[in-house]
Specification:
- With 289 residues, the chain is α+β, with helices and mostly antiparallel strands.
- It is built from 13 helices and 9 strands.
- It folds into 2 domains: 173 residues, Jelly Rolls, CATH 2.60.120; 112 residues, Arc Repressor Mutant, subunit A (Orthogonal Bundle).
- The strands form 2 sheets. The protein has a 5-stranded antiparallel β-sheet with strand order 1-8-3-6-9.
- InterPro entries: Homeodomain-like_sf, HTH_AraC, HTH_AraC-typ_CS, Tscrpt_reg_AraC-type_HTH.
- It comes from Arenibacter echinorum.
- GO terms for molecular function: DNA-binding transcription factor activity; sequence-specific DNA binding.
Length: 289
């Protein structure tokens, strides 16, 4: 585990402070980055990972990357927020290797870290608090230039603070169940799937990769990830298609090929079954907001 974490890179996207009301009401949000919140006043709700989580003052929260969620504020709340991209060698995710909690009572240093990160990275606030506006936008790619403009000391301190804050949500490794350990072992096959989404992936191919019987592999995969391998592959293809639709100028045919769904008609049908709209309408509606 420690060797894997040694390759962890965290890249800041946004940090800021927001005063939000009932307009903070968004459904079907999925982001390619980690979100962190520190609530200072009021309350709101987020729904993700099959949990309903009340955002409360003096608590910190994390939402993993590529997690479908809903955000709702009935009255008013104020929050420090952070968004960052994660990268581990060979394309892993830290969320594949550890169990996470999503809420924690803030300690004495948490507020300092949020404020310090904002001090180190001024003018990184979101221009619009609607996640469906800033998620996966072409401007998302501007973060690399902004991070390169930091001084070496500011860059290192920024990275260190992000690591400290994320570490607050990792469960004690000694308390992990056998199922969690199996999930950790499946990190390799998840990486293999993510690297080969453009290929014709089969369950037998994945089982062979893990040196497991096909039926056993499918059953254990379902136990740990809540869905069969084929459904997981399909969901990841649609997630990647969403990112490509909003962050590139690729044609629908090019995107379909890049996510392993070369038949454009089939791509349109599967995309609509996941999102409720066709790829073309999805791109048009999101980029016009």
């Amino acid at each position: 585990m420690s060797k894997i974490l040694q390759s962890l890179k965290l890249a800041l996207l946004n940090v800021g402070y927001a005063k939000l009301g009932p307009l903070w009401d968004y459904d079907d949000v999925i982001s390619p980055f980690i979100r962190l919140y520190y609530i200072t006043e009021g309350s709101a709700m987020v729904y993700h990972s099959n949990e309903a989580i009340e955002l409360k003052p003096e608590h910190i929260y994390i939402i993993p990357s590529y997690t479908f969620g809903r955000y709702k504020c009935d009255e008013y709340h104020e929050q420090y927020y952070i968004s960052c991209l994660e990268e581990i060698k060979n394309g892993y995710s830290i969320f594949n290797f550890s169990s996470f909690i999503y809420e924690s009572k803030a300690n004495a240093m948490d507020l300092y870290y949020f404020k310090r990160l904002l001090e180190l990275n001024p003018n990184r606030q979101l221009e619009n608090n609607n996640p469906k506006v800033y998620d996966n936008r072409p401007t998302l790619m501007d973060f690399e230039k902004r991070n390169e403009e930091l001084s070496p000391s500011a860059y290192m301190e920024t990275h260190a603070i992000l690591e400290i804050l994320i570490s607050r949500f990792i469960k004690d490794m000694n308390s992990q169940s056998t199922k969690s350990n199996v999930k950790k072992e499946f990190g390799m096959v998840l990486n293999y799937i993510h690297e080969n989404l453009h290929e014709n992936l089969t369950v037998k191919q994945l089982a062979d990769f893990c040196h497991l019987n096909t039926d056993y592999f499918s059953r254990v995969f379902h136990e740990n990830f809540g869905m069969r391998p084929n459904k997981y592959i399909q969901s990841k293809r649609i997630e990647r298609a969403q990112l490509l639709l909003l962050s590139t100028n690729n044609s629908l045919k090019q995107i379909a090929e890049k996510v392993g769904l070369e038949n454009l008609s089939y791509f349109n049908r599967i995309f609509k079954s996941h999102t409720g709209v066709t790829p073309g309408i999805f791109r048009e509606e999101r980029l016009q907001k």
